[in-house]
Amino acid sequence: MATTTMTHENHDETVKDGIVLIDFWAEWCGPCKRFGPIFEKVSDQNEDAVFAKVDTEDQQELAAQYGVTSIPTLVVYRDGIPVFGQPGALPEEALKDILSQVRGLDMTEVRTQYEAQLREAGRS
Q1: 11 assigned to active site
Q2: pLDDT by residue for the chain (124 residues), tens digit each?
Q3: CATH of domain 4-120
Q4: Does 8 qualify as catalytic in the annotation?
C-alpha cells in the first residue's frame, strides 16, 4: 500500500481504526529524505496498516498538536489510541520491529491504561 497524505482535515478519520503509522517530515530535512524511502518500502510490505505522511511545513497546526519539535518524528496508533511516538530516522529493521510490537499489543490492557491516563488528566 502506498503512503497517504495526512492533513488536519483527514486526521481523525485516518487514526480511528487499525494500525496507523504517521511520519512527520519536511522537504528540507536531510534525515527525513533518508527515512522516507524506508517508510515507503515498509508500507509496501504491510498492507494491513496505514502509512501516513504529514508535511510539517504545510500542516503546521497538526505538527503543533503533536508537539513535534524534531523531524522526522514517527507516531503510531492502534485502534484510535496513540501507542508509540519517537523523533529520529529509523532503520528499516527498527521500523518493522515497532510494527510487529504494535501488532502484538494486548489492546484490552492498552485501552484500560489509556482511559486511566485520560481520567487522570481530566479528559475522560
Answers
A1: no
A2: 579 999 999 999 999 999 999 999 999 999 999 999 999 999 999 999 999 999 999 999 999 999 999 999 999 999 999 999 999 999 999 999 999 999 999 999 999 999 999 899 886 5
A3: 3.40.30.10
A4: no
Q: Are 84 and 76 in contact (CB under 8 A)?
A: yes
Q: Which three cell numbers stand for residue 3?
A: 503512503
Classified as helix, coil or strand, 49 is strand
Q: Choose, from 22, 29, 52, 74, the residue flagged as catalytic.
A: 29
Task: Return the domain boundaries, the chain.
Answer: 4-120
What is the model's pTM? 0.93
Please pick, among 15, 21, 32, 49, the residue that the annotation labels catalytic: 32
C-alpha cell, 118: 485520560
